[in-house]
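Researcher: Quick test of sequence recovery. Tokens follow.
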């Protein structure tokens, strides 16, 4: 009975992950609570994920990655990328892969993409090419590079922890580095020589006007306040134009001068010219009811709109919502975004979907791209938040260049201690975190902002699920049934089956969830068929991170989805051949290197 009850929880969890009714980390936490309530795990087992070595190691690696970024070490690679990139797409992808891939082996790949995304965007502008030609390869090379070491991704660390719990011991730091380097080279060759023919040319980068891709010329209008207007003497806050008419006031022009933001507390006067955003019907409605005239002689083509939105004091920018942002799940109205950041959101791009109406009521998601407008100081201040990424090349705030060599030394110390088995990865990583603080590479308060808490809660919530599968006998039951079928096939086909199954599940689930579910089953099948369990676990681990076919299968794909102007199909067209290549190459390499 407990087997089927556990499997029912697993199926329910899978449905919730796919449907995305809640963020994946909250779903995982709910699963842990349900397992405790149903008695499938003890309370201690239910919260054991928070103290699991894999969870703590991942948390430490996030902090160490932050230490590297705060000292500007990555900027050296940025300069090399700009210097050696050349003009051809093939050369640019090759150079980007050679520089970015190895970095991802030691620094969390979502952090690497966050750093290089603005750099690549600026590079594309200078070279006059579409970002869609380079942003997807950027994501893919960080995924491939993350498989070179155990600390390259949180999935690898989690897989290592599961292997330890199953009695096989943790993976050593460079245990699958040979395999990782070879698969990385195969993937880079595909991205360099084949992918450029498949990648779309989606966004026109020739124009400096960010708003061109958002169709705002149809929604921005100039109106003038007539002497008989009902608005005269009111402030914009009391006028409630956004609430009553779904119209946003972007700028005020008074006596031929633009008034600085914020506009909410300003009193409306006759002859004020307002730059407003809204649907045509809403603008006509406010004109009729509030006594405004539309300036018919203003034609909002792209050049005019650029002039209106980009002045000496004002500007527009694209802002990406990061995965650790507290804005996720909230609406702009709930957040009081305009008051909080002194910026107006003009439009929202979510993958292929463009949202320009009722923006205040749309719950925000990871990977959403906001087009914001406001004064230059407010845009500059936005660059300091760790929850939003301004998509333009910039010098990071408060870079501690004098601490760069200290950061490098600490990271090298962590790697060497783990590589020579002097200390476990967990211990060496924690020592590295302490040294980052003692040496001043990071300030104590920066530790909490560096950690991807969504990933930590995801891991902590999923680990009890693996425990419940083991305690109830569900893992053994599934393995026994698979063995009945698999006993008729050779070891290679069993290896290929787990690789393909994991790869497909990862496209619709969290890669961490896939590893938790499949590694124990793969290990038991290997034991029953007298195969190499380590080889089988490596197949699952590599397949879990070989997620290229959808923009939602891996977080770095989600990060480049909107900035690249991609469509969902673009990822399948470029990623499916790469997935197929990895499915052919990886199992054969595992058999050759580790034996089966």
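Model:
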């Amino acid at each position: 009975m407990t087997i089927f009850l556990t499997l029912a929880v697993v199926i329910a969890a899978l449905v919730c992950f796919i449907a995305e009714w809640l963020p994946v980390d909250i779903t995982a936490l709910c699963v842990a609570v349900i397992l405790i309530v149903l008695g499938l795990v003890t309370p201690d087992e239910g919260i054991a994920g928070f103290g699991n070595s894999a969870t703590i190691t991942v948390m430490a690696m996030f902090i160490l990655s932050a230490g590297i970024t705060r000292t500007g070490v990555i900027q050296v690679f940025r300069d090399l990328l700009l210097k050696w990139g050349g003009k051809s797409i093939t050369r640019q992808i090759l150079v980007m892969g050679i520089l970015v891939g190895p970095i991802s082996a030691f620094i969390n790949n979502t952090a690497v993409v966050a750093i290089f995304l603005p750099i690549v965007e600026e590079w594309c502008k200078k070279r006059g090419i579409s970002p869609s030609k380079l942003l997807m390869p950027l994501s893919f090379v960080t995924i491939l590079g993350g498989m070179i070491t155990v600390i390259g991704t949180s999935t690898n660390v989690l897989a290592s922890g599961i292997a330890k719990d199953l009695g096989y011991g943790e993976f050593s730091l460079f245990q699958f580095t040979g395999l990782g380097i070879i698969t990385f080279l195969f993937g880079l060759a595909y991205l360099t020589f084949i992918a450029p023919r498949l990648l779309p040319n989606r966004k026109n980068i020739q124009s400096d006007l960010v708003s061109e891709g958002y169709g705002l010329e149809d929604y921005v209008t100039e109106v003038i306040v007539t002497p008989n207007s009902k608005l005269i003497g009111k402030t914009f806050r009391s006028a409630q134009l956004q609430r009553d008419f779904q119209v946003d006031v972007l700028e005020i022009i008074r006596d031929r001068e633009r008034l600085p933001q914020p506009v909410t507390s300003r009193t409306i006067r006759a002859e004020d010219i307002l730059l407003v955003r809204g649907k045509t019907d809403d603008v006509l409605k406010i004109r009729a009811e509030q006594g405004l005239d539309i300036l018919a002689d203003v034609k909002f083509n792209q050049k005019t709109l650029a002039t209106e939105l980009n002045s000496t004091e004002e500007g527009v920018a694209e802002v990406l919502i990061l995965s650790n942002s507290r804005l996720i799940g909230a609406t702009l109205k709930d957040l009081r975004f305009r008051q909080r950041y002194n910026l107006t959101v003009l439009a929202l791009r979510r993958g292929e979907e463009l949202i320009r109406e009722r923006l205040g009521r749309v719950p925000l998601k990871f990977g959403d791209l906001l087009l914001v407008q406001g004064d230059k100081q407010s845009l500059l201040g936005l660059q300091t938040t760790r929850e939003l990424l301004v998509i333009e090349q910039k010098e990071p705030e408060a870079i501690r260049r004098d601490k760069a060599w200290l950061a490098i030394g600490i990271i090298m110390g962590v790697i060497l201690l783990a590589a020579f088995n002097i200390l476990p990865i967990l211990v060496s990583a924690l020592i590295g975190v302490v040294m980052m603080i003692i040496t001043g590479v990071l300030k104590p308060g920066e530790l909490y902002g560096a950690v991807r808490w969504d990933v930590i809660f995801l891991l902590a919530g999923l680990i009890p699920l693996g425990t419940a599968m083991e305690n109830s006998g569900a893992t053994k039951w599934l393995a026994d049934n698979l063995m009945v079928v698999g006993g008729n096939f050779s070891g290679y086909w069993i290896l290929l089956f787990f690789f393909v199954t994991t790869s497909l599940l990862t496209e619709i689930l969290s890669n961490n969830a896939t590893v938790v579910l499949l590694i124990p089953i793969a290990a038991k099948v290997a034991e029953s068929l007298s195969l190499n369990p380590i080889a089988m676990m490596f197949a699952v681990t590599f397949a879990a991170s070989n997620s290229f076919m959808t923009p939602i299968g891996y977080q770095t794909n989600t990060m480049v989805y909107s900035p690249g102007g991609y469509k969902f199909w673009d990822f399948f067209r470029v990623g499916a051949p790469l997935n197929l290549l990895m499915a052919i190459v990886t199992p054969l390499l595992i058999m050759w290197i580790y034996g089966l």
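The mean pLDDT is 81.
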